Amino acid sequence: MAQMEETKQVYYGRPVDTEDRLDKEIAVYDLLDELQMEYARVDHEVLMTVEDCKGVDRLLGIEICKNLFLCNSQKTKFYLLMMPGKKKFDTKTVSKQIGSSRLSFGKPEYMKELLNLTPGSVSILGLMNDNQRKVQLLMDREILESEFLGCHPCINTSSIKLKTKEVLKKFLPAVNHEPIVVDL
Predict the structure, then answer these.
(1) In the 8-state DSSP scheme, what is residue 118?
(2) Per DSSP, what are the bridge partners of residue 82?
(3) Helices and strands (H and E) in the chain: how many
(4) Exposed (0-12), middle (13-18) or buried (19+): which is 20, by Cβ within 10 Å?
(5) Phi and psi at residue 179, in whole multiples of 5°?
(6) Nearest-5° Cα angle at 109, 177 to 141
(7) Which residues contact 97 (CB under 8 A, 6 or more apart)?
(8) How does DSSP classify residue 133?
(9) How is residue 167 annotated by DSSP?
(10) CA–CA dist 107, 69 (Å, integer)
(11) Model pLDDT for residues 4-60, shown as the tens digit of each residue
(12) What single-letter DSSP state applies at residue 18?
């Protein structure tokens, strides 16, 4: 892993060559640029978990957030939980705080339908695809207290660093989502 980290490069802004990039990734950069948000980016091999992102964390000088796509037991309410990667998800704690029946992981079909995301690429940036506002954002308080946050641009072969303030004041209003703050 250490040798791979040395060959990685931090870029500022969108990729110059977009030929081999998915449309949903380019749409993220288009929106971030339109909102005049600053971001640093690292391209990498497929990374499926927060643990896989440790080298990227060091390069970007952040901790990549854990993003979990969840639903209630009736599968009528959907949530995107954003929390520090080092924290453990406790369904009982979160369920109680939001007044929901026991939460479980949402099926990939719902993730694709509602956020245009696939397992391993879940990100707050997927909310730009939730035009009908069917997914409620849940953010751990610790995320809000961080200067920066890290996530995937709707694809798990790149990671980006964003200013938390800009996400809250620019991105979320632009995509018509407000977070519910939880404590894990």
Answers:
(1) -
(2) 67, 139
(3) 8, 9
(4) exposed
(5) -80, 150
(6) 35
(7) 182, 183
(8) -
(9) I
(10) 8
(11) 444 589 999 999 999 999 999 999 999 999 999 999 999 999 988 888 888 898 999
(12) -
